[in-house]
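fyi for ur records
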Amino acid sequence: MKLKYIIAIVPFVLFSCNNGNLLNDEGSGESISNSPNFELQNKKSQEIIKQIDEKQHTLKTKLKKTKGKNADNLYLEYSKLLNSLIKELETNEYNSLSIYNKWENEIAPDSIQKKMELYDKLQIKIIENNDGTYNLKYRPGFYYDMFKYKASKDLREYLKLATLQRKKPIVVDGLINEDWSEISNRLIIWENFIKNNPNSAYKEDAKGKYLELIQLYLFGNKNERSYSIDTKKIEPLTEQEYMNFVKKYGKTTTGIITKNFLDFFYTNDKNFSSEEFHKKITEYTNQEIEKEMKKF
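which gave:
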């Protein structure tokens, strides 16, 4: 995914993360409702934004007085609350988001500028998805920066890894933006987190991120596949990466899954038609992934 900003309103938002950030100590007494741009035409959005602002202030205040597992509990409570509110805001702002790309290289109307300034103060960014649609999300590192000195070790590590995933996405605009070796590096990082933190409250989220990456690693995506369905040949650089990875990390979960994938590929590529082979190896590999994931 790619972060995109409205170029025409950069002067409006220069105070952003460091100067106008509502979670900084310097601005802790500032209320978003005091902003001259708070009066939006969409009253429901105005109400949601005010709730987000209030929740952020409350979380910051509580974090000053707690750490460790108590801080973890705050994360679980408030991340759920804030993520729910931002989803509600996104739904309510559907019309604005659906035409957002119209203003990327033009002077945006006042209504859009006002919204962008308020979003920026709340550290909310407009994110472009691979299909060209837009969503609202907190900037990468929003939670990590708040909790990195307060939370328990496993939450700090989880948030750090999740932040890396967002700051340096593997897929951008539907295209794989990194070498296959970077995907395998991320897989090992997530695998180690899951194995080293078996009782973590964030284990299932980590497993979800791992599953996304292992699918991408072995199959690619619709724009860039790891192997040609027509010729049943693995891309040479990808094939070399697989072999190097299995040689180095053959005893890891990712190494075992990759080796099984290769063994099936080389054993069956001549036994089926192209489409049938693709179906067979997909089914087999997914079964192997499911089997190995049960061991986590």
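The mean pLDDT is 84. thats all i got for now
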